Amino acid sequence: MPQNANLSDVITLISDIKHGKVFSSYEIALRTENLLEKVISEEKWANAKELMQQIKGKIQQVTQSLPLETTATNIMRHILKVIREECDQVSKKKGEGQSLHQLVTADQSEERDYSESHGDLKNCLLDHLTEYKVELETSTENIAAQALEHIHTKEIILTVGKSNTVEKFLKHAAGQRSFQVIVVEAGPLYHGHKMAASLALSGIQTTVIPDSGVFAMMSRVNKVIIGTHSVMADGGLRAASGVHGVALAAKHYSVPVMVLAHMYKLTPSYVCSHEKDTFKMCASPANIIPYSTGPLLNKINVYNPIFDYVPPELVTLFISHQGGNAPSYVYRLLSELYHPDDYELY
Amino acid sequence: MRNAIRVVKLIISNVNPEITEDQARKDVLARIDFFVKTRIELASNWLLLICKWGAFLKYLLKGKEVVRYVSSKIQNGDVILVYGWFLFFIAVLLRRLFSFLSSTSVLSSLKHSSAQGKKFRVVVVDSRPRLEGKTLLKELKNSGLDCTYILLNAVSYLLREVTKVLLGAHTFFANGHMLARVGSAMISLLAKVPLTFFSVSLPESLTLPAQSSRVQIDSLVYNELINEDCVVPISDPARREQLSEALKSTKKLHTLHLLYDVTPPELIDV
Prior knowledge:
Largest interface: A-B, 55 and 53 residues
Shape of chain B: globular
Number of strands of chain B: 8
Oligomer: heterodimer
Structural class of chain B: alpha/beta
CATH class of the domain at 72-214 and 260-267 in chain B: Alpha Beta
CATH topology of the largest domain in chain A: Rossmann fold
Number of helices of chain B: 10
Number of strands of chain A: 11
Number of helices of chain A: 12
Subcellular location (chain A): Cytoplasm, Cytosol
Family (chain A): Belongs to the eIF-2B alpha/beta/delta subunits family.
Radius of gyration of chain B: 21 Å
Distance between the termini of chain B: 27 Å
CATH superfamily of the domain at 72-214 and 260-267 in chain B: Translation initiation factor eif-2b, domain 2
Strand content of chain B: 15-25%
Organism (chain A): Zophobas morio
Number of domains of chain A: 2
InterPro entries (chain A): eIF2B_beta_subunit, IF-2B-related, IF_2B-like_C, NagB/RpiA_transferase-like
Strand order of the largest sheet of chain A: 3-2-1-4-7-10-11
Largest sheet of chain A: 7 strands, mixed
Radius of gyration of chain A: 22 Å
CATH class of the largest domain in chain A: Alpha Beta
CATH topology of the domain at 72-214 and 260-267 in chain B: Rossmann fold
Shape of chain A: globular
Pfam family, one (chain A): IF-2B
CATH superfamily of the largest domain in chain A: Translation initiation factor eif-2b, domain 2
Distance between the termini of chain A: 23 Å
Largest sheet of chain B: 7 strands, mixed
Strand content of chain A: 5-15%
């Protein structure tokens, strides 16, 4: 059955994410990209409309099983936009690109019917995907290359927990500038220790502080540079738990907060910040209070949330491989990445 | 620390000029020992205290007032977030030894309220260098209160439910800034994000006076470092080794464990 066969690869991806075999967003992005290549080259589809239906089905599957895992769905949404663009170009309806006049006078009710079949579509899409893959693989280096524009000598930079992007960013800058880094431990998993060890071993002066010491140290910090899990449509962040406190402390002392985010982290959904159920994902409380504590555990509640929502007014700059952007510009980036019809697919 | 030095200076200045130097030295040492025993080792020398330091009674009474005031603020259905009771251990010991003194410990304000039949929940926040919240958690549980335990990173997540925040303060400076356990400033800041109604800071009125004539705005200028032995190791043995190995292998890596931080007055309500 074609329907089941289509979804089996997505189901494999979902189960790998759930079991922790695929952990970082970068790996998820690569896996999704491979998945899409297979769909486009091997699956049977007659025209663009059918292909888009297939991909939309996959997006729905992922959204239902992993509502907070947005990397995969974002990449698939981007491909949908690429497909639509390809169709538009090939059909020559708007062959020379949209002039302002056409944009303004375009008929709202005009439905693009993507059901024409084009022989060339497959090859065009595969070319696009190869380009996109190269872009994915080099995006971390491109972000790191901007480090020298943002880090000055003798600055004190604060970062939270462990992020591969931030690590490369700081190491790249350390090649030419000398600065200090303060790493916040980020309980309960204390990834900050690994980050600090890695930075120190590559020659950067590093200090590790516990989560509680952030406010005390913030008055001495020049910049806060953090990574994030995803960027919401309003410019807010869904970041690791504890980052909200750090961002508030930075705002209090007027320290700029720079967020390093790849383009696939931009997600077209909003967060109602007073609905804490939106961030219902919690991890095992054993990291907070070990099971060996004994009978006391029967009577208390322990929470271990994974994510935190950081409102956009606390973020100063987003740095992606294309350059830096203000949080208020995120809506424009979204319109370049995804088609408005694909924002809500559930 | 400052107060101890002040007392020593006072003792030395009060020495009788007519006695010999040796005797004066012995006298000063004896008084210092006495000070240590009575002011610092309260729990074991409580009786001596009552006889010799009338001022201590004043502290007790103040403590009772504080407890009554805080209890009056706690209402039915409240969710209270607590953080940082480092002098609490002394209070607990006192309470254990002399039960009629129970109203002096700040913990008792919560017990007092629950004794009055008010139904409320307590959220205990803990943070890593010392993880002192666990003892508080056990005490609260033994008194039958409904408790939740979280680490500092989860405060933003739970703060939506919380109605009041109780922080244990160490000192209040003359400019209104509060010296408290490291992390208290962060909690006050988060509580100010408009969703919580009330932020209450309670001074510990037992061993040290709650007011200081000094002024301080910055947490780093005057602080204490936690002894490395007191730092609680991470429970997961695999991760524990990461940092200690790295610390040994390179000079570029340091840890910094502060004991206090300073909270500006605009973040405190009461």
